[in-house]
Amino acid sequence: MEKQRSSFTGKLGFIMAAAGSAVGLGNIWRFPYLAAQYGGGIFLLVYILLAVSFGFTLMVAEIAIGRKTGLSAIEAYKKLDSRFAFVGVLAALIPTIILPYYSVIGGWVTKYLFSFIAEDIHVIAADGYFEGFIASSFPPIFWFFLFIAVTAIVVVLGVEKGIEKVSKVMMPVLAVLTLIVAVYSICLPGSIDGIKYYLLPNFSEFSYKTVLAAMGQMFYSMSLSMGIMITYGSYMKKEVSIEKSVRQIEIFDTGIAFLAGLMIIPAVFVFSGGEKSALNKGPGLMFVTLPKVFESMPAGKVIGAIFFLLVLFAALTSSISLFETVVSFFQDKMKWSRKVSCAVVVGICMLLGVPSSMGNGAWSGFTLLGMDFLSFCDFVTNNLMMPITAFFTCVMAGYVLKKGTLETEMALSNGSEKLYHVVIRYVAPVCILLILLTSVLDFLGIMKL
Ligand code: TRP
């Protein structure tokens, strides 16, 4: 039975839904640790340049593809040009790999929320607390199961609307609280080196890895190259301006990521005494740094608990939409019922999530390309599959489709239209190819950069 495609109510409905999907752990957890690791200011600069060029262009293209066809990713690519059907499948595979490890991190957030409620803050902020937690076997898996169970139950019961309503209130509060903590962080004595590191680009830290990491992060944070914006576009009313909506989502998404960096990176300098290795904590950075910030704050325990609750909501709205995307992929492609599809998705999450969690502890000896399992899933999706999907999207939109097919749908203003064409035809495909080629050569050891 063909389901009637409902529309978002008006402009705000679309922006809130798309922003709800975009703002999540990517902004608060992933962006700060990458910025810390890849040179601070230079990463921030590259990220912003990519967001306003690539990010803008690709999001406009994806939403236009969705609204034009009224279909979800797999069917949309097929309909526009059957030779590009594989791009739709690739795009749908990405959230299937992201969801399991996203839920592992969601589990860490849930655990921290409970810790802030039930434990002494000095215990949580002590050195080694986080490391001890992720290296243990059972607790992280327990929290991961809890997170994925809540996500699945929300989807199975079809109560996303309820969660969305709550998160419409929670998101702006999260933005405000992040701002407050960021201001507090930069006022800590000794933060100035960290502020400089984060805000002033140091060109000697630049390498292709900065661009690769920033590009992957941009796709991830803006939920691009995984079919999600195509699906959202298919629900978008014709009279809503794509250009304006994309600008607003972009500003909101980048703004929160920027503040999250400001909240965490200067604090890393404060609490490590300026030691460089503290910047390379990777996925644990936020969990190690923030408790120390809250510990030094008046009423830090309460603020910390509220903060992790808000982050948990941001993570849940994202994991729900990831879960939905994967479920509808199985429903459409395999013609499985919704219940069966949900069960299969939970199964996949266990299969990929348990090794992601154990990779930090008991199974840390098992690595792929030198990475633990969680980092490997993160790397393969963000730094390989998403650029490849984006590349083919650019080729299709910029060269293969008849001019005007998507352009009339986009109805861009003059300046943006020029930017769009240059980026989709030349800048984006060439940069993506160069970056991918460099990483492959580097990996093979032919070129050491
Ligand atoms: N953009 C989300 C974040 O920043 C994460 C995410 C990646 C996502 N892919 C998605 C969310 C697909 C929803 C749907 O955390």
Question: Which helices and strands appear, and what pairs or packs with what?
Answer:
Layout: H1 10-22, H2 25-37, H3 41-69, H4 73-80, H5 85-118, H6 121-125, H7 129-135, H8 138-157, H9 160-187, H10 192-199, H11 208-221, H12 228-234, H13 242-272, H14 285-296, H15 300-334, H16 338-358, H17 373-400, H18 407-410, H19 414-444
Helix pairs in contact: 1-13, 2-11, 2-13, 3-10, 3-11, 3-12, 3-13, 3-19, 4-5, 5-8, 5-15, 5-16, 5-17, 8-15, 8-16, 9-13, 9-15, 10-13, 11-17, 11-19, 13-14, 14-15, 15-16, 16-17, 17-19
The structure holds tryptophan.
Short précis:
By secondary structure, this protein is mostly helical.
Give a written overview of the molecule.
α11 crosses α19 (414-444) and α15 (300-334) packs across α16 (338-358). The chain is an all-alpha fold and 449 residues long. The chain has helices spanning 10-22, 25-37, 41-69, 73-80, 85-118, 121-125, 129-135, 138-157, 160-187, 192-199, 208-221, 228-234, 242-272, 285-296, 300-334, 338-358, 373-400, 407-410, 414-444. The mean pLDDT is 92. The chain has 19 helices and no strands. The protein starts with 9 loop residues before the first helix and ends in a 5-residue tail after the last helix. The relative contact order is 0.19. Tryptophan (TRP) binds next to α1, α2, α5, α11 and α15.
